[in-house]
Design a protein that fits this description.
This protein is mostly helical. Helices cover 77% and strands 0% of the residues. It has a domain of 212 residues: Orthogonal Bundle (MetI-like fold).
């Protein structure tokens, strides 16, 4: 277990460094004057002058060679200093912490809603494969999986905010503002997970130990709960961790669409403003979060694994 944790953390740190380095290279490869974009973000487009851009260039060290800027950033990271935002001038960790709480709340709610939708549907379809519910769920899942997140969000806004006027279309002032962005994420996640759950349960129900349990007199539901649920959970837990990549991509689109002040919205605004320290720090944080989610999934699978279905049911 300790070896697994050490290996995963080492991979996460290396990947995070590579990702942040790529962010640094890509941002500086964009056309235009970085100092001028930062000045526009600080002062407003109508108040930007060449003198203001030159002053920012000198103050922030943007006139130094790129390799020196990069080495300076590496030195700060080695001392656990993320630096300060070139736009707000606040420490990067403060802005990240402020926006991360919104993103974590939205992500947790969206993920929970997705499994509240996918789990009962997937299990129900697995117990009646090929029937009407299974075919309808498969068609809906394929349609949702083919739609980008912003199309799902626009559809929900059109229905629940503009037509029915049940929910606010954007913002973050009350809990009601969370519903549409969380549901947008949930539908996109459920479109994939419902088929994984359905196929995992079907595979388990066809296993020999399930047949043996039925011969011993257990009903289909009892056999699944006692002998199949644990094994069906292993691929589902692994896939749930992989879904984090979809969630990160969804954050950027969903938070921008719903004007929700999370990490995705912060990342988009930082890219527009060329706020390099913020972009690189966000890349580090997202990659480390992804590593922690994968490590959690590995540990869950290890905990579930010892009672693999090889033994005879009792």
């Amino acid at each position: 277990m300790i070896g697994l944790i050490g290996s995963r953390l080492s991979q996460a740190l290396l990947t995070a460094w590579l990702l942040a380095s790529l962010c640094f290279a890509f941002v500086h490869a964009l056309p235009g004057d970085t100092a001028l974009r930062i000045a526009a973000a600080r002062l407003g487009d109508d108040r930007v002058t060449a003198e203001a851009a030159d002053r920012i260039r000198r103050e922030e060290g943007l006139d130094r060679p790129l390799y020196r800027q990069y080495l300076s950033w590496l030195g700060r990271i080695a001392s656990l200093d993320l630096g300060h935002s070139l736009v707000s001038r606040r420490p990067v960790w403060q802005d990240l912490a402020y926006h991360a709480r919104f993103t974590l709340g939205l992500g947790a709610l969206g993920w929970l809603l997705s499994y509240l939708i996918a789990l009962p549907l997937g299990i129900a379809c697995a117990f009646r494969p090929g029937k009407a519910l299974d075919r309808a769920t498969n068609a809906a899942a394929v349609a949702l999986a083919a739609m980008p997140s912003f199309m799902i969000g626009i559809g929900l806004i059109s229905l629940f905010a503009l037509s029915l006027r049940w929910l606010p279309p954007a913002g973050h002032r009350t809990g009601a503002h969370l519903v549409l962005p969380a549901l947008t994420l949930a539908l996109g996640l459920a479109a994939f997970s419902v088929r994984i759950i359905r196929n995992a349960v079907v595979e388990v129900r066809q296993a020999f130990y399930m047949t043996f349990a039925r011969i011993r007199g257990r009903s289909a539901g009892q056999a699944f709960l006692h002998h199949g649920l644990r094994n069906a959970a292993i691929p589902v837990a692994t896939f749930a961790a992989l879904q984090f990549a979809y969630v990160v991509d969804g954050f950027v689109i969903v938070e921008t669409l719903f004007n929700y002040p999370g990490l995705g919205d912060l990342l988009v605004k930082s890219l527009i403003a060329r706020d390099v320290p913020m972009i690189m720090a966000a890349g580090l944080v997202i990659e480390l979060l992804y590593a922690c989610v994968n490590l959690g999934a590995d540990m869950i699978c290890l905990a579930l694994g010892p009672r693999h279905a090889g033994g005879s049911p009792t």
